[in-house]
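Lecture 7, part 2: worked example. A protein chain together with iron/sulfur cluster.
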Amino acid sequence: MSLHEKAEAIYGALLVEYGEPDWRPSHSPVDELIWTILSANTNDRNSERAFYALRERFGEDWDAVRTAPLDEIKEAIRVAGMYNQKAPNIVATLEKLKQERGEYNLDDLRQMPVAQAQAYLQSFPGVGHKTASIVLLFCFRLGAFPVDTHIQRQSQRLGISDRKASPEKIKLLWESLLPPETYYALHLNLIRHGREVCQARAPRCEICVLQAHCDYFLMIGDWG
Ligand code: SF4
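Predicted complex, written out as structure tokens:
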């Protein structure tokens, strides 16, 4: 089985298991960008609490956040952790948006080639390939595949990548193996599978629908 066929088989098996998630963009691209900056190295609950704490303190006014004392922003987002880095990154991101665009709006990314939009987002402070890909995929359903720790771990175990591959390399691999229209479902279904079945410390291989495609399960390579 080629790597392409393996990727297709994994995508298909996860679709059968978990279904096709509805794509419903719930945030503007700027909101998604700030939310994703907040989400680095914390869980969904804490990043959500930090985002809504910002909203509670400053309303829906990104200008008010941009011009607020840094300590006020740090206080608001404290629950997300790493607030000494995240607060200045948020302010610098808002400054860049204001200076370059005169407004807090990224809707035009929809019309850009994906690579260009990805590079533009990564020019913002604290924004890496995962954050940029999340904004492009979740807000516009553009062909960018975000790789988090769950997806990195499963890609390595499944043998889509080698065991030491970086998240960025894994992103490029999946993007070379499957078409863009599969990325949204694949991303969400792999994360769900990573949380519920292919867990970091003790993967539940005995109930996994990906056994037939998994190097770790089949002891291909030096897993044993
Ligand atoms: S068979 Fe095991 S290691 Fe492989 S994807 Fe499933 S749970 Fe993960």
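DSSP finds twelve helices and no strands in the chain. The chain has a mean pLDDT of 94. Keep this in mind for problem set question 3.
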